[in-house]
Design goal:
391 residues, 6-stranded mixed β-sheet, 24% strand, elongated
Amino acid sequence: MRYDLYKLMQIDRDYTLETLARLVRINSINPTLAPDAPGEREIAGFVAEWLRASGVEAEIVEPAAGRTSVLGRVRGSGGGRSLMLNAHIDTVDVKGMAEPFSGEVRDGRLYGRGAYDMKGSLAACMAAARAVRATGAPLRGDLLVAAVADEEYGSLGTRDLLTRVRPDGAIVTEPTALDTCLAHKGYLWIEVEVTGRAAHGSKFELGIDANMKMGAFLYELAKLERDLRARPPHPLVGPPSLHAAMLQGGAGLSTYAPDCVLRIERRTVPGETETRAIAEIQEIADRLSAADPDFRATVRSFFVREPFEVAPDAAIVKAVDRAAAKVRGTAPRHIGDTPWMDAALLQAAGVETVVFGAAGAGAHADVEWVDVESVVRLAEILAEAAVEYCG
């Protein structure tokens, strides 16, 4: 098959959708999120075997015991930019789902856990690499397919692959309904521990109630939450926010609470820093301590994921935009999204990155589906973008 610059890359529609159904029928629930879940080993084996059968080099890597990713490669002739197509192969739990692994297609929608988030995009990445390899498209740089473990929790897969390869560009194929996503939010998990003094419930003069003290903190935290949402919003992802996610305190009904622990999730927008976000919460604790000698609190962050943003004139964005316009017939919108994605890790490592994926609904929900035609269109767009970017 000879590659024609002016024709759309030919994607085998039926084979792509058959592959998607097989992916959805494999249980790849993240074991960190659900007891006794199988993890990614079976699906990684399937992806690697499929790629090899399509003439694409593939290796299985294991960033942690039992956690497997796949790195596929279509080698270029040399001297060009390399591109990674990135999709995660783990899913969240299936509790409450009537048909978690069906892969059934009804009214143009394929159903099952991970169909939307994000095995539809994974199937498109695989189909794009297969088409590029089959047509002999003139790549100078390598085209990589990264089917990564653990995105739903700690991103072991992408973090590990960045120690093995460092592509020039990346397309993270989280679902975007075939629009071009240039930014997403980050988040911090922050713990505030207020210390009281235990005493018998009848001895008010001896006890300091940590739960009551935390009440004062929560009152001030609510003011900060309202202030965050009132700030000038980021043009693509909106304003920052926070919520009091978990609260635990007290040792017994007849005991003054010796401590109270609050866990906060703080969603950040591009341009915000961990240091500043923590400082705003520390300021509340400092202000309360200054007003009340019995108020004692410590503030610390224990998990951080940075926000992501790429310039609209970046080479990877232009390549995706042109490919999408060629396939769709209209230019894609530039959008932002609120959930965190592996795009932030790639961008932070110096890999120019954009997010572009299929259409559907139901991520983490009881009913999940992906639009099958968007998967085929996505495969065409990814293949066209690879030819431009790596050529």
